[in-house]
């Protein structure tokens, strides 16, 4: 029996292609959803872009017939725009206010009440990314769920970039003798990815161990290329930081992703590696550092001054790390240093669309606040000879329509984890201070 899915506006604004994600079931779009989409289509951000995409998509479908009668989808399902669907009285009795959310609930409820009188009942499901709408639906006795089709992985299966294997000590001895191992030798049950790090431990319980990295073709386990020497004064304090530096300093890996809680050293390690590659080794022409302009909490509104002055509050975390690396003593010294060097550019992602960025070391901070489309736009700007580093904490998201699973950083980690051109590391141990580590763990 086919189900009837009633879609909330936020589902379409989050993923304009969501109507194709419900197999051969019936998809109902309440008329009030069209009104809400119309109110968003003039926005200049991604919300407006998605609203325009949905509008064009529905207009294209209109060529097949009347939307209020139903349009057959490629999957065999049916898409229908519901004009009114009877009374709003039931929902108004419960919640009073005649809001758009309550009108969407009324459509789902009336479909549900219709099915109660039928011999073969169809299941009615309200799909919304709004938690309170789903709670209201539950109060009304409706089945409701989040839109999950865009999620690339379950939260319990996040790719960490490293794995610990317990093996016979003879295998560890063989690695130290020949400086490599074949992946087939380990006879693994789970799949390991290109550029993934492997920690071998003695299954008999001794302290014998080894740290290796999977080759770019995924067939060999090789020793780490780098020693634990300081990088612009920064020394790795734990195994994950050392693995991260291995990825950051490897010119054959043009895409690196770093995730971890606050204080784990993501930004500092990336900046140190970028400065080494740009200023010391001259591998890249410029170090470009950018982050999305997404506020935490209430926005502070418009800021006075030129572009650089407006961006300074948003970019201050980057400047803080640069001041530490350059060991500046006075306020304003870092601005003089950056102006004199000319090879370091701090920018907002607002201005990256349309650019082509060849020969640069690119760092994108707070990438967990980017959508999948925004990450695609950014990575597709990377030109020949460039390296891009995306980092962030999926547990700290300030974007209203994203969560730890649906954000752009998590998406690119999962999509690229098997590719030889990319590498990922999840930093686990906080190194900022004991207080910062406890705050990240306890709060």
Can you tell me about this structure?
This protein has 443 residues and is an alpha/beta fold. It has three domains: 4-145, Rossmann fold (3-Layer(aba) Sandwich); 153-223, Archaeosine Trna-guanine Transglycosylase, Chain: A, domain 4 (Roll), CATH 2.30.130; 234-442, P-loop containing nucleotide triphosphate hydrolases (Rossmann fold, 3-Layer(aba) Sandwich), CATH 3.40.50.300. Helix content is 36%, strand content 18%. It has 15 helices and 17 strands. It has a six-stranded mixed beta sheet with strand order 3-4-2-1-5-6. The chain has a six-stranded parallel beta sheet with strand order 14-13-15-16-12-17, sandwiched between helices. Helix 6 links the parallel strand 5 (124-127) and strand 6 (143-145).
CATH superfamily of the largest domain: P-loop containing nucleotide triphosphate hydrolases
Largest sheet: 6 strands, mixed
The low-pLDDT segments are: 295-303
Structural class: alpha/beta
- Could you say which overall geometry the principal axes of the C-alpha atoms support? globular
Question: What is Rg?
Answer: 26 Å
Helix content: 25-40%
**Major sheet: arrangement of strands:** 3-4-2-1-5-6
Number of domains: 3
